[in-house]
Design brief:
This is Helix-turn-helix domain-containing protein. It comes from Nocardiopsis flavescens. One of its GO terms (molecular function) is DNA binding. InterPro entries: Cro/C1-type_HTH (IPR001387), Lambda_DNA-bd_dom_sf (IPR010982), MLTR_LBD (IPR041413). It contains eleven helices and five strands; from the N terminus they run ααααααββαααββαβα. By secondary structure, the chain is an alpha+beta fold. It folds into two domains: 73 residues, 434 Repressor (Amino-terminal Domain) (Orthogonal Bundle), CATH 1.10.260.40; 168 residues, Beta-Lactamase, CATH 3.30.450.180. Strands 2-1-5-4-3 form a five-stranded antiparallel sheet. The chain starts with a helix and ends in an 8-residue tail after the last helix.
Length: 264
């Protein structure tokens, strides 16, 4: 009886992921190199997928490593992806890479966050972004999206708050939908309840990317952000780390942060 429940649950989870990726059984079967009939039997629990089959389908569906472990457990197999805390000795190389990246990005702000947008590490440049933020929002664990959009966070200093808010909410909505993470869905609902409005269609020449325009000491600083992740991770924790780096979007901001002028 237990095996039947596990097989049905595994098949149901695979079906959920297939639906989330908007793939038909035929499309997924072609990607995975299995028959649509066999895939149908797996999803309904009539056939038990082998360990390799679970991993192959999860790979084709781009399922996060954390959820691949869950699929394996539901099918009756042991997880294959380790999940080590970041302070584990085996994670020393990861921490070293993160710290080198953060230090190398100074004086520009950069942060490392986990899958819940909880702050893991930051460089000294981040202090510029956090000026005036309520200390309660900076008490660990710090959620960087909450800090960015909360009325007692960075929001009052963001000159293009409606535009920046729409960008962050859209990004979070996509992440929640892609990962199926209920926690991210709850975070989205919380942040969407904060004051703000739809920025509407862009006027004039649309920007190449949405900047963060920050009021500081009577001036306006403008930043563009980039996101980096670890390539081909085999550890759940590593796969969920994101490094977000902010670069000056104009020469005035670069000068204000003590950086050389961008070459022509």
């Amino acid at each position: 009886m237990t095996g039947t429940v596990e097989r049905t649950e595994a098949g149901g989870l695979l079906k959920e992921w297939r639906g989330r990726r908007r793939l038909s059984q035929l499309e997924l079967s072609l990607r995975a190199g299995v028959s649509a009939r066999h895939l149908s039997f797996v999803e309904t629990g009539r056939s038990r997928p082998g360990r390799d089959m679970v991993l192959r389908l999860a790979e084709c569906l781009d399922v996060p490593l954390r959820e691949r472990n869950r699929l394996l457990l539901a099918a009756g197999y042991a997880p294959v992806f380790a999940e080590r805390p970041l302070d584990d000795a085996e994670m020393d190389p990861v921490r070293e890479v993160v710290r080198r990246v953060l230090a190398g990005h100074d004086p520009y702000p950069a942060v490392v966050v986990d899958r819940d947008w909880t702050l893991v590490e930051a460089n000294t440049g981040v202090a510029l972004l956090l000026e005036g933020v309520d200390p309660d929002l900076l008490a660990p664990p710090v959620n960087v999206l909450r800090v960015g959009l909360h009325p007692r966070g960075m929001a009052p200093a963001v000159a293009n708050l409606d535009q920046w808010r729409a960008h962050l909410l859209h990004r979070l909505r996509l992440q929640a939908d892609w990962t199926g993470d209920a926690g991210l869905d709850g975070l989205y609902r919380e942040l969407a309840s904060y004051p703000g409005a739809d920025p509407g269609p862009p006027r004039g020449t649309p920007p190449l990317a949405v900047p963060l325009r920050l009021r500081r000491n009577g001036a306006e600083l403008s930043f563009l952000s980039t996101v980096a992740t670890f390539g081909t991770p085999l550890d759940v924790t590593v796969s969920e780390l994101v490094i977000e780096s902010f670069f000056p979007a104009d020469d005035a901001t670069a000068r204000a942060l003590g950086a050389p002028r961008t070459p022509a």
